Amino acid sequence: MPESRSTILQQIRAALGRGPLSDAAAAALDARRPTHTRIAFDEDPVGRFVTRFESRSGTVARVSSFDAIPAAVDAYREAHGLPPHAAVARPLAGLPWPAGFTHHPGPSGVDEQMSVTPCLAGIAEIGSLILASGPDSPTTLNFVPDHHLIVLPAGRIVRHFEDAWALLRALPGGLPRATNIISGPSRTGDVELTIQLGAHGPRSVHVLLVADGSAAAA
Amino acid sequence: MDVSSPRFKEKAVIALANPTLRQALGQSRKGFVNKRAELVAALPEFEALRDQARDVKNHVLENLDHYLERFDSAVTAAGGHVHWARDAEEARNIILGICERVQARTITKGKSMVSEEVNLNAALEERGYTVVETDLGEYIIQLAKEPPSHIIAPAIHKTKEQVSDLFEAAHGGPRKTTVADLVTEARLVLRDKYFKADVGITGGNYLVAETGSSIIVTNEGNGDLTQTLAKVHIVTSGIERIVPTLEDVSLFLRILARSATGQETETYTTLSTGPRRPGDVDGPEEFHVVLVDNGRSKMLGGKFQDMLRCIRCGACMNHCPVYGAVGGHAYGWVYPGPMGSVLTPLFVGLDATYDLPNACTLNGRCQSVCPVRIPLPELLRELRHQQHQRGISPPVQRRALGVWRFVAERPGLYQFANRLAARALKSLGGREGRLRHLPFAGGWTALRDLPAPEGKTFLELWQARKT
Fold first, then answer.
1. What's the longest Cα–Cα distance across chain B?
2. Is residue B55 included in any domain, yes or no?
3. Which domain holds residue B441?
4. H/E element holding B232?
5. CA-based nearest residue to B273, from B233, B312, B236
6. What's the CA gap between A144 and A141, in Å, rounded?
7. In a domain, B12, yes or no
8. Residue A140 lies in a domain
9. Which residue of A has its CA nearest to B137?
10. Of residues B313, B302, B212, the one with CA closest to residue B263
11. DSSP secondary structure code for residue A66 in this structure
12. Does residue B289 sit in the same domain as residue B427?
């Protein structure tokens, strides 16, 4: 309600003992780009990403090139006894998938067991992945299936959150509708603080780390 | 939610005598406190990050009107809607209005303390909506028809056996007895609800003025399923939860999980910016943010402004010996522990909440772990001061303080009384030098002896040394 908006703003200004900010003061606030302390580390970012991600029960498989992804997906699928079917995000649909493997670009339905998606970047600081939603990366693929496989080219691993924000801001439409920072499989500690994986989201998050120098298919 | 804070003492006594609660609370202290300590010890930057987080929050509060307006414009530019709620009733009516307009039937909810604060579930259920809490802890207490007892671990007071009982009653058998089986059962039950939901309601850990994004930080992924699969996503958040830029978000992400659950990061951090876009195959068709004031703007500019820095991590209650002994329900409203003992009197009034600021030992552990350095003991002391000024404290205590003041303002009388008391207590202490009973201090001596003084006051000893 418009009157609520103005009442709240008036109350805030009255409490602060001033009127609305001048244009110059407002412009100075808008131009503020703070530099906060970042977490220092000496390790190589790729190594740090893998160690941190695996520390939270995420798994990582290294693949030599984009063309090697279907075989890595197939190996994962067989190891987990999953049917030859997955939601595969559009940028990965053109890979040489084996005969008999069927896939669709999403969204993910309630019975989806596996998805394969790209990501915007990996963040070495804490070993997390950042995914930007859009037609090429539907959000349901990140949360509904039991198994989420994420393709991450090694060259897309950045050091800190701040580096990932720069990539987000540079996207054609600006920030996507949903930006998902994913740090491992879903978990809960809500029963006696016992950590249990697979609360509501994927029980398993598996990164396919594509070696540097491989041409990006995405 | 009804305020039962006036019954704090009574509820604390019941809690202290409850072995099941003691068992459940014992687990939590080990978990959260130790894990946080390990991570903080391993992070040399942590104290600098706390300083910066405090400073950013102060900067936001000094310019809150500006950042709220920027956030509003950015949400609108992204195709979303911002609603401003002066109080709890207005917040409820805004949400009821949206649910009615879209002809909602099933409403899923991610964890939101603001929705507890404005008593949203009762209002929705009264209108006939099916409301499903999806955070496992919230789901458990929804089945138990209880309020949360902790702001980030709402069912921390429940043991596994109690959860088994609740699930068996709600879902039918066979009874699940392991944590893994209980979690799987909840996962399967809730899965269909996400897909059926017309409206998904979540909280907002941070609202980013620069981008118009609301952020949730979770471990389970329930908040994401809630906000992705429902046709309409509604965010409820306090007006103080604004951060200016994404750079500031990184700062808070570095301290939140470490302070809250003792994790380096929670599993999911999600920025939601507007509704589904052209070409998107999923995501909500509508995106709403309800900005709730409900007493916050009145805290600005006054003695309690520091409390508005709170990022709702729960570290203060994890480290509070009183919370650890009595649990969250005794506090009688939405927010328990040290932060709740400050917020509850400010939100619901000093009269109904007399015991809360007084049920604090002023040991300072809460302040020592608060990631945004809120001086919680000072704020609690200030509340006691205001209780005294307004005549809310008990008459006996007020008279006793009056007598003490009369004596303390007269040094001769004060020293005489001290000398008398030191000698009297020494002789009462007998050969053992311990007092088993003491008039007016039965609460102290009921559980332990009081060591008797040596017979001379400090001043007497001092003067003896000088001569």
1. 92
2. yes
3. 411-466
4. strand B232-238
5. B233
6. 6
7. yes
8. yes
9. A190
10. B313
11. G
12. no
Q: Are B111 and B135 in contact (CB under 8 A)?
A: yes
Closest-CA distance of chain B to residue A196, Å = 6
Query: Comparing A114-118, B173-177, B336-340, which segment has the lowest mean pLDDT?
Result: B173-177
Q: Is there a domain that residue B103 lies in?
A: yes
B422 shares contact with chain A (CB less than 8 Å): no
Mean pLDDT of B427-455: 83
Both B288 and B416 in one domain: the answer is: no
Contact between A32 and B244 (Cβ < 8 Å) = yes
Judged against a pLDDT cut of 70, whether residue A217 lies above it is answered with no
Give the per-residue pLDDT at A1.
65
C-beta separation of B338 from B317 below 8 A: yes
Structural domain boundaries, residue A187: 43-210
| Minimal-distance CA residue of chain B relative to A8 | B86
Q: Tell me what pLDDT residue B161 has.
A: 94
- Within 8 A by CB and 6+ apart from B404, the residues are none
Range B381-404 average pLDDT = 91
- The residue ranges of DSSP E strands in A6-101, in sequence order, are 59-63, 85-88
Distances (CA, A) of B381 to A213, B298, B407: 62, 19, 23
Reported pTM: 0.94
The number of distinct structural domains making up chain B is 2
Using alpha carbons only, give the angle B211, B212, B213 rounded to the nearest 5 degrees: 90
Nearest residue of A to residue B155, measured between CA atoms? A190
Q: Answer whether residue B440 shows pLDDT above 80.
A: no
User: Does the beta carbon of B277 lie under 8 angstroms from any beta carbon of chain A?
Assistant: yes
User: According to the model, what pLDDT value does residue A213 have?
Assistant: 64
Residue A170 lies in a domain: yes
Residues of chain B with Cβ-Cβ distance to A93 below 8 Å are: none
User: CB pairs below 8 Å between A and B: how many?
Assistant: 260
State both tokens at B348: 């619901």
Q: How many CA atoms lie within 13 A of B129 on its CB side?
A: 29
Distances (CA, A) of A123 to A48, A171, A182, B42, B267: 9, 17, 10, 19, 13
- Residues B282 and B415 grouped into a single domain: no
At residue B441, the pLDDT reads: 77
Residue A182 located in a structural domain: yes
User: Which residues in chain B touch residue A188, judged by CB atoms under 8 angstroms apart?
Assistant: 136-137, 183, 219-220
Is there a domain that residue A8 lies in?
no
Mutate to test the interface with A, among B250, B277, B289 (most CBs of A within 10 A): B250
B330 lies in some domain: no
Say whether pLDDT at A181 is over 80: yes
B390: its two tokens: 């307004």
Whether the CB of B280 is below 8 Å from some CB of chain A: the reply is: yes
- For residue B270, give the nearest of B205, B314, B209 by alpha carbon: B205
Which of B225, B245, B279 minimises the CB distance to A34?
A: B245
Mean pLDDT of A103-126: 97
pLDDT at A14 over 70: yes
Q: Is the pLDDT of residue A71 over 60?
A: yes
> In the listed set B297, B316, B340, which residue is the last one of a domain according to the structure?
B297
Interval B448-453 mean pLDDT: 86
Asked if residue B174 has a cis previous peptide bond (ω within 30° of 0), the answer is yes
Specify the number of domains making up chain A: 1
CATH of the domain at A137: 3.40.50.10420
Residue carrying the six token digits 């919680």 = B376
- When pLDDT is averaged across residues A85-106 and rounded to a whole number, the result is 97
Choosing from B250, B278, B297, the residue where a domain stops is B297
Token couple for B250? 């990184």
